[in-house]
Amino acid sequence: MKLTKTLLTTALFGASIFSFQSTAWADTPEQQFQQGLTAYEQSNYQTAFKLWLPLAEQGDAQAQGGLGMMYERGLGVKQDDFEAVNWYRKAAEQGDADAQAILGFLYLLGERGVQVNKSLAKEWFGKACDNG
Fold first, then answer.
1. How do residues 48-107 score in pLDDT, each as one tens digit?
2. CB-based contacts of 60, cutoff 8 Å, min separation 6
């Protein structure tokens, strides 16, 4: 029994160190975002969230859009329409064309907790077009 506890403790400690090392190498915000994107693409949503949240809170539009998608789809976080729209809006207000287009569709269709508002949909679509 003691050997089992020792092995389990060692395994958990090793996993926690590996988890720390796998998220600690990013030297720049861009590297941190890319590392989060790789984690997201590998369906490692908790790691992506852990990497993107500090960036999003510091105003990184790409990370904000990524969090919006995660909250919209419930990937690594509890699905939450309010949070999804909140993060999309933050990214959109900084000129992120993808987030602007998503907000346009949400307002056009009245989805994810927003009411149909064709005027706002047109405004967000226009901004998305202006931003490529």
1. 999 999 999 999 999 999 999 999 999 999 999 999 999 999 999 999 999 999 999 999
2. 29, 33, 52
Is the pLDDT at 5 greater than 70? The verdict is no
Residue ranges of the domains in the chain? 27-130
CA distances from 76 to 67, 68, 70 (A): 10, 12, 7
User: Cα(10)–Cα(46) distance, rounded to whole angstroms?
Assistant: 22
| Interaxial angle between packed helices 45-57 and 2-24, expressed in degrees from 0 to 180 and rounded to the nearest 10 | 40
* CATH number, span 27-130: 1.25.40.10
Instruction: Output 82-87 pairs: Cβ under 8 A, ≥24 positions apart.
Output: 82/113, 84/112, 85/112, 85/113, 85/114, 87/56
pLDDT band at 10 (very low <50, low <70, confident <90, very high): very low
Tokens of 36: 């989060």
53: region left, alpha or beta (phi > 0 left; psi from -120 to 50 alpha): alpha
The alpha carbons of the chain give a radius of gyration, in whole angstroms, of 19
